[in-house]
Amino acid sequence: MQRTYKTEPYGGRQCRRMSTEAPVRFDTKIAVLLREDLEPWQRLNVTAFLVSGLGTQLPEVIGAPYEDADDVPYLPMFRQPVLVFEATKETLTTAHARVLSRALPRAVFTSDLFSTGNDRDNRAAVRAVPTGELDLVGMAVYGPRNAVDKVIKGARMHP
Known about the structure:
about 20% strand, single chain
């Protein structure tokens, strides 16, 4: 008679399954809009810089701290997904005008910031250019879902 191989029950920690409850729907949106002609490293760099501004001024976007099964703590992150879009320079300029007219919380990244190396010089580079003349390469926006959708209209999801 041939025996079937079976493993013994695992006595250690079991994997905790994710909740099977209905998905959480947020009435707000975090969106990053990038100019489509950026190099891959620039896209990542700009995205990281832009979203860092949201958490500092909008504590409601930050969730609770994380902890693994061994009780090792980790920093809290956004409580909701960050959606990344790309668009032409013209669409980004239009989105910037829309975000300003709606007075939504936003962060900007201009092409000048690729040549600076610190926060002081970054702020000075933005400060030196009038609003309508900013050479935007990225923008982050947070607000009610429908308002953010109107701001980024014409953009497409980042591939």
